[in-house]
Amino acid sequence: MKKTTATIALAGAAVGMMPAAASAQDDLMSMEGSQLRSEIERRYDAGLAMTNNSAVVNANDPRYTWAAETKVQCGIALGYLKSNTRDEVSISKCAMAYDMMNREPTPYVAPPPPAPPAPPPEVCNAEAPGLIFFEFDSAVPQQDAVETVEYVVENAPTCNWDSFTVVGHADRAGSSSYNIGLSEDRAEAIANLMTSRGIPAGSITTQAKGEESPRVPTADGVRELQNRRVEIIVSE
Questions:
Q1: Shortest CA distance to 178 belongs to which of 225, 210, 209?
Q2: 3-class DSSP assignment, residue 21
Q3: Residues 6 or more apart whose Cβ sits within 8 Å of residue 151
Q4: 89: which DSSP letter?
Q5: Which residues on adjacent β-strands are paired with residue 235?
Q6: How confident is the model over 18-38, as pLDDT tens digits?
Q7: For residues 183 and 73, what is the distance between their CA atoms, to the nearest angstrom?
Q8: Which residues pair with 84 in a beta bridge?
Q9: Quick one: which of 122, 131, 132, 206 has its CA closest to 164?
Q10: Buried (b) or exposed (e) across 177-208, using 16+ Cβ within 10 A?
Q11: How many CA atoms, within 13 angstroms, populate the side-chain half-sphere of residue 234?
């Protein structure tokens, strides 16, 4: 087989408490007397206000849950303080819940819609009889790759296709050097699939173009399904 390579130069948050939450907890735990009571009351009032904030409630905002927890835990801590008892557990939970309540929720980013399936190729269309897409960071052919290769193999005698160039591509996520290797692996995987279906290895040339020839132009670092591909080019 010939080869050419293109050159390209809630509970979870509480268990895994982040440093900011731990710092806020330490600050509150270090306070005493009236200062401690004042700060817990302030946190309780803030939690109460957020649980009554219609914008937070109606938006299904996760801060509502933490606001409710802040109100409960800070209320428990205040109850103990009124009887001159310092309850370390409720004070700690009050501090943590208040910190989580004040974190802006990560906006939900909907996944991109799946790429539309390629139209079935016309028999003996020598321009691009085979177009195969890959999962991100993968060179493993999926079932649609097997079907595309079988289409090429079945039509090769009828269309007089006796020379095949298998070109691997990658999207722009990852380094150029990594993507050229990934493109090469993808081309090799499809070439091996073709030989396993009866195409002579000597009639196949593989190329790797990495991210230099995108099907859909994107900014650097963007994952794009239609750029993670192998093209089978045929000639008579």
A1: 210
A2: helix
A3: 121, 129, 130
A4: H
A5: 163
A6: 445 455 566 787 888 889 999
A7: 55
A8: none
A9: 206
A10: eebbbbbbbbbbbbbbbbbeeebeeebbbbbb
A11: 24
| Long-range own/partner contacts, residues 76-79 (CB < 8 A, 24 or more apart) | 77/40, 78/37, 78/40, 78/41, 78/44
pTM: 0.48
131 near 229, Cβ under 8 Å?
Answer: yes
Tokens of 171: 């999207």
Q: Rounded distance, CA 40 to CA 42, Å?
A: 5
For the segment 95-143, what is each residue's pLDDT rounded down to a tens digit? 999 998 888 777 778 888 888 876 545 567 666 568 999 999 999 999 9
pLDDT band at residue 9 under the 50/70/90 scheme: very low
Cβ–Cβ < 8 Å for 90, 76: yes
CA distance 114 to 110: 12
